[in-house]
Amino acid sequence: MIYQQERADVAAYMRRLYERHLTTCSGGNISLRTGDGHILITASSIDKASLQAEHIAVLSPEGENLTGELRTSIETGMHLAVYRERTDVKAVIHAHPVHGSLFTASEHRIRTDLLAESRYMLGEPAFAPYALMGTEDLALIMGETFRDSAVLSALMENHGLITVGDTLHLAYDRMEVLEASARMTWMGILMGGVRGLTPERCREVDALHG
User: Fold this and answer.
1) Could you tell me which of 12, 39, 17 has the C-alpha nearest to residue 28?
2) Is the whole-model pTM more than 0.85?
3) Which CATH number do you get for residue 174?
4) Cα angle at 47 between 42 and 53, to 5 degrees?
5) How many domains does the chain contain in total?
């Protein structure tokens, strides 16, 4: 099996997303760009709880499916659009965690200024306008959303969340932190207000990225 270890890693992180209740058995997708530019992406219609290396499709750098026995994720075009815009991105994770996804249908933003770690890991999450899942319109919107190299995560209106990273682990870590930030924001609203980092402190954290 080509890219056996990398495909096993993608499958393991997809199972981890499911086990951590960050997505459903049929929802979400993960991709990884290899060192030679190929794209590994979760296949469609396979239970996320039992995903294995053989369920991870291999695409050419141009997006051609080299594993014809697998039907690629409906959101393949979206992943490819992000990679085209961001040479620094090596992994893309799309999921539907309950609290974070709720904010995609809300006027409230997910606050990443409540903890310095959240600000460092996520910056300011972008908000991408709605487009039907699996469409070219959605791919174009997400490519545009991540064109800015400062964007590390985004809320997809009435859809879900997406995070990126220069490693698979970092993209996953950002998804966990984004969902945790959503939960803290929600609880802060219920509490009637909480104190976040000042603008100056946010700039200090941002400067750690160089």
Assistant:
1) 17
2) yes
3) 3.40.225.10
4) 45
5) 1
How does DSSP classify residue 79? H
Residue 58: which pLDDT band, with cuts at 50, 70 and 90?
very high
30-43 average pLDDT score: 96
pLDDT, mean of residues 191-209: 93
Cα torsion angle, 152, 171, 154, 189, sign: negative
Q: What is the dihedral of CA 65, 10, 133, 147, to 10 degrees?
A: -90
CA distances from 45 to 55, 94, 160, 176 (A): 10, 15, 18, 24
Query: Residue 71 is part of which domain span?
Result: 4-209
Pairwise CA distance, residues 43 & 30, whole Å: 9
pLDDT at 1 over 80: no
User: Which whole number is the average pLDDT over 40-47?
Assistant: 93
Mean per-residue pLDDT for 190-201? 92
Half-sphere exposure of 167 (CA within 13 A, CB side): 4
User: How many Å is the maximal CA-CA distance in the chain?
Assistant: 54
Determine the residue type at 37.
Answer: G
Instruction: Give Rg (Cα) of the chain.
Output: 17
| Positive or negative: CA dihedral 87, 93, 96, 97 | negative
Report d(CA 72, CA 144) in Å as an integer: 22
148 pLDDT exceeds 90? yes
Half-sphere exposure of 23 (CA within 13 A, CB side): 26
